[in-house]
Amino acid sequence: MLLGDYESAVARAATPEAVWATFSDYFREMVVDRVLYLHLPPIGAPDSRKPRLRAESFPEELVVRYLGERLYRDNPALRHAHQRAEPVYWDEAAELGPANERESEFAEMFRKADLGDGVGIPVFGPDGRMGQCGLGFRKGVRRLDPEVLKEFQWVCELAHLRYCALLVPALGPLPELSPRETEILAWVARGKSNPLIAEILGISSHTVDAHLRRIYLKLGVFDRISAAVRGIGIGLIRAQS
User: Fold this and answer.
1) Is 166 helix (H, G, I), strand (E, B) or coil?
2) In 127-236, alpha helices (H)
């Protein structure tokens, strides 16, 4: 599949399933035998406890464990890829080393699975929706040409963004905050106290308190930290607001 055809097909995809089908079809014609996509929702999002995983040609038992036991939290390749914001080859992750015992155990399990060589590509979406694409190479392939790797990055990122665009609306409507409530929540997220927020906005502390009570009710939380986390996680405010 040519890159232009892939871009058009992803743009036309009307469901997450269609995005995955297009994504996996693209790699069938490349030097890739195994394909994996992991979607990691941000803390505070409605689906924050529901990561999503799709995989093709990976051992089924390993895939079930990877998601069910949340082994992705112990995957050094995933950690290195997100820290560096760039692809990390599987053997390179092993050379960089695990950070703790759990990562060591994961690396040993991965080694025993004998999956060959491959690359982990981090992907980044709106409001902190991150993910990982795992591409296992055909036998004899250890590294990709730099231009090919760049294309694979774009292919992965484009699929992730389209997946996010289709998934988020399906999670249900967002709570609606008034402009003033949004403004106050943004200051809460920046660590400002109620009296200081009142001073900044030129209103009374009692008014800030009243707005916060309504914010808690709308967001289904009971404290300012949870409100800030949820507001960022669902995109009502931005972390830098």
Assistant:
1) helix
2) 146-170, 179-189, 194-201, 205-219, 224-233
Structure-block tokens of residue 128:
């902190």
Structure tokens at 201: 């906005």
Amino acid identity, position 160: H
- 150 lies in which domain range? 3-170
79/76 Cα distance (integer angstroms): 5
pTM, two decimals, is 0.82
Q: Which of 149, 170, 191 is the last residue of a domain?
A: 170
> Do residues 77 and 196 share a domain?
no
Could you read off the pLDDT of 193-221 as tens digits, one per residue? 999 999 999 999 999 999 999 999 988 88
CA 83 to CA 88: how far, in whole Å?
A: 10
User: How far apart, in whole angstroms, are the C-alpha atoms of residue 17 and residue 221?
Assistant: 33
- Which runs of consecutive H residues, i.e. helices, occur in 69-100? 76-84, 90-96
